[in-house]
Amino acid sequence: MDGKSSSNHAGKPIRCKAAIARKPGEPLVIEEVIVAPPKTGEVRIKIICTSLCHSDLTFWKLKDPPAIFPVILGHEALGVVESVGEGVHEVVEGDTVIPIFLPDCGECTDCLSEKSNLCTKFPFSVSHWMDREETSRFTDINGETLYHFLSVSSFSEYTVVDIVHLTKIDPTIPPNRACLLSCGISTGVGAAWKTAKVEAGTTVAIFGLGAIGLAVAEGSRLCGAKRIIGVDVNQDKCEIGKKFGVTDFVNPGNCEDKTVSQVIMEMTGGGADYCFECVGMNSLVQEAYASCRKGWGKVVVLGVDHPNAMLTFNSFEVLYSGKSIMGSFFGGLKPKSDIRILEKRYKDEELRLDEFVTHEVEFKDINKAFELMIEGKSLRCVIWMNK
Asked: Membrane spanning segments where (predicted)?
C-alpha cells in the first residue's frame, strides 16, 4: 500500500476527542479536535491505549520553553494504522504499531551502525511540529492550532505520526502491555542490555526506583547481574524493587553520617560495576560516579535534568580512576529492530511487563493518572481510549 487506504476517512480530516493541556499544571481538558490526514511519509493511527510517562508530567508542569501550550501530550502508546500518506511502504491499514519518540530512518550512518541509535536524518528535538515540515496536524473546533508532543501526541483518539517514529508490533500481545515498550520500560531495560552491557555475575547500583529505574533492574536481572542495589528515598520501593530483581536497598535518609557512595563502597568492597542515574539530578550523577568501582566502573545517565545543569569532576580523578560515564537515550535501543527482541522476550515469559502496570483508567479519567503519578502511587497507569 502506498498512500492508499480503504478507510472511510482516508484523505479526509477526522473529528475525535483529545485531552488538551491548555495551561501548565492545570487539568487536561477533553475536547473535540480535528486531525488532518497524513502527508508524505506520515501515518494516521487510532490509539487503543496510552500510558502516562514521567516526561508527560514534566512538560505538563513546565512553564518555560521548550514547553508550549495548547498541546496534546502523551507518547507511550499502542495504536492501529488508520491510513497512510504517500511514500509509506512499511505499514498498511490495520497494522498494530507503537509510536516511539526516537526516530529510526534506517538509512543514515547512525541508523545503519550498531554503535548508535541517534538518527542523523531526523535528529531528535523537543519539536512541537511534524518531522518533515513545521506544521501541526491538530486543530480544535475553533480552528486554533494544537501543538504536537515528542512526535507522538497519544492523548488523542487519532494522531498523525511520521513513519520513522513507528514500529510494528505483534498484535497478539495485550495492548496494555505492548504500549509499555514505547518508552520507559524499553529505556530502562535497554540501558542495562545495550548501553552498559551488564555482564553476568556483576553488581549494579540504581539511583531512583521509579518505572525506569525498576526497568533497569529488570534489564540487569535479564543480563544475569548477581547483585542489584536500589537507592531511593521512598522506603516502599524496597519491597516493590524485589519484584524486579533488586537484592539490596539503600535509603539515603537512613545512612546516618555516611554518604550513599560510602555505604555502597562498603557493601560491595570497592564499588558497583555499573551505576545508573534514573532521577535527573546532577548531584546523583556525582554520587553514582563516586559509587562506581575504579578501573572498570561504568556510570549510565538516564534521568532528564534541567537543560542547564552542569557536572563537575576532578580531572585527576577521571584520569587515574579508569571509570567511564555515558548517556543512554532510549536505552541505546534501535526502535525498529530491538523492540522486536523485547517483544519476543515478553512472549517467552522472560521480560516482566505485567508488574509495571499498577493502575488502569478510562480516557475520561485521564487526570486521575496524573494524580496517581504525582502522589507516587503508580508505576504505569494505562489509559484506555474506548473501553
From this structure: none
Q: Are 302 and 187 in contact (CB under 8 A)?
A: yes
Domains of the chain with bracketed CATH: 14-19+71-164+174-184+332-384 (3.90.180.10), 185-331 (3.40.50.720)
Q: pLDDT by residue (tens digit) across 297-342?
A: 999 999 988 878 899 999 999 999 999 999 999 999 999 999 999 9
Read off the DSSP letter of residue 342.
H
Give, in order, the Cα–Cα distances in Å from 213 to each of 62, 96, 146, 219, 226: 23, 28, 33, 10, 17
Of 338, 331, 336, 382, the closest CA to residue 361 belongs to: 382
State the cell numbers at 57. 508530567
Beta-carbon count within 10 A of 163 CB: 23
Q: How far apart are CA 232 and CA 79, in angstroms?
A: 34
- The per-residue pLDDT for 224 is 98
- Secondary structure (3-state) at 78: strand
Locus of grid cell 525498576? 214
pLDDT per position as a tens digit, 167-211? 999 999 999 999 999 999 999 999 999 999 999 999 999 999 999
Cβ-contact 372, 203 below 8 angstroms = no
Q: What CA–CA distance (Å, rounded) separates 125 from 208?
A: 25
As beta bridge partners, residue 264 has none
Report the DSSP pairing between strands 42-51 and 76-84: antiparallel
Mean pLDDT of 80-91: 98
What are the residue ranges of helices labelled H in the chain?
54-61, 109-112, 175-178, 184-190, 211-223, 237-242, 260-268, 282-291, 315-321, 335-347, 366-374
pLDDT tens digit string along 260-284? 999 999 999 999 999 999 999 999 9
Which positions ≥6 away from 378 have C-beta within 8 Å? 52, 358, 359, 369, 372
**pLDDT at residue 49 above 50?**
yes
d(CA 110, CA 207): 29
In total, the chain counts a number of residues equal to 387
